[in-house]
Amino acid sequence: MRMSSAVLVVGAGFAGAVLARELAEAGRTVRVIDRRPHIGGNAFDALNEHGERLHVYGPHLLHGEADSVAIRWLSRFTEWEPYEHRVRAVLADGRTTPLPVNRTTLEDVFGVELPTEESAKELLASEVVAGTPNNTDEFFLANVGPRLADIFFRPYTRKMWGVSPTQLEAAVGARLPVRWNRDDRYFTDSFQAMPKDGFTAMFERILDHPLISVSLGQSYGPDLDADVSHTFLSLPIDEYFGFRFGRLPYRSIRFETSSVSADQPATVINYTDTGIYTRCTQWDLIPNSGRRQDGQHTVTREIPCDAADNNNECYYPVRNSETLARYEQYEALAATEPNKTFIGRCGLFRYLDMVPCVNIHLRLAATFLGQQAQAVA
C-alpha cells in the first residue's frame, strides 16, 4: 500500500531542493536521493586547499529582480554577497573587449569613436541583415550582422553546441543582448549576488527540515516508488523511458583547472575563436571566495563536448525543431504515468537559469499540493 503523505524527489539540485522544502513545509514526508555524492546539483561549490571557492560544474551567476518570488524565497536560506558579473572576449590581436556587445565593443572591433548611443545604433544598423530570425544564425544576422557574428558568435556557438547555429532555435542566440551604452555588466537585473557562504551551504539550509531525508550516491530505480505516493524525477526523461524514441542531445563540458600568476581583466574570459576552449573563470574574483597567499590564482578553462563523451553529464539541451518534436513524444508518454512528474533541466529538456528554475518549481509544488487537496476533498 502506498503511503499517502510521502513523496520521492530524485535530484538534489535547485528543482529537487525547492520542491522538497515546499512539500515538507506543507506536511509531506520527503525522501531526496541523488546519484552524486553531494547536494546542490550543478550549482555545487566547495573551497579548495587555498580557500578559493570553486563552482565544480562551471560558474553559476545568480541574478533576477530584487522583488521576485524566487529571490525572496532563497533569501530565507542565505545572506548575500553583492556581485556584478563581467565577461570579456579575446580579440584576434590579443586585446579583450566587453561581452555582451556594447558601445565599447563596437569601438574596439571597428576602430571608430562612437560618442553617443545614436552613433552606435547607426553603425550596427549598417551591419545587420533585416529579417525575422528562425534560427540562431539568422538571429545573429538580424541583431549584429555577419562581421560581428563571425568574430564573437558563430565560432563560439559551433564549438559550444557542436552544430552550426543554423541548427539551433533562435532563443539560444537571444540570450546575449546588444547594448548602446557602455554598461559592461553581463546582466542588468536589479538583484545580482552570490550566496555569502556559497551555494552548497544554501542548499544545506533548504534541505534542513525534519520531514526531509537525503540519500547521496544513490541512483533511482523503480523499486523506490513502492512506498511513496508520488515521484518527482530530475533525471533525463529519455533515459527514464529507455530512449524509446531516440536520445535527446545534450552538450557537456570538460574542465581544466590550473594556477596562473596574473589576474584576468574580468572574472570570465570568453574565447570566441575556433580553438577548443570556450571560457576561463578566475575564482578569486568572485567576492565569496578567498584569495591565495602565494600570489597565484586558480582558473578553470572549459572545453565543450557531447554529453556522451563526459559520462553522460547533461548540461545544455540542444533544442531545435527535431529534438523538440522528440521531446514531445516523451512528454506524451510521461502523461500516462500520473504518479510521476519530470522536473528540472533534464526532465523538462529546457535550459533553466537558477531564478526561473526556482519560480517554476515553486509553482509546480503549489499545483501539486492543490491537486492533492482536491483529491482528498
Account of the 3D structure:
The model has no long low-confidence stretch (mean pLDDT 94). It is built from twelve helices and 17 strands. The longest helix is centred in the last third of the chain and has 23 residues. With 377 residues, the protein is α/β, with parallel strands linked by helices. It starts with 5 loop residues before the first strand and ends with a helix. Among the domains are: 136 residues, 3-Layer(aba) Sandwich (Rossmann fold), CATH 3.40.50.720; 87 residues, no CATH class. The protein is globular and about 70 Å long. It has a seven-stranded mixed beta sheet. A five-stranded parallel beta sheet has the order 10-2-1-11-17.
Structure, briefly:
With 377 residues, the protein is an alpha/beta fold. The chain has 12 helices and 17 strands.
CATH superfamily of the domain at 6-39 and 207-249 and 318-376: NAD(P)-binding Rossmann-like Domain
Low-confidence stretches at least 5 residues in length (pLDDT < 50)?
none
**Structural classification:** alpha/beta
The radius of gyration over CA amounts to: 22 Å
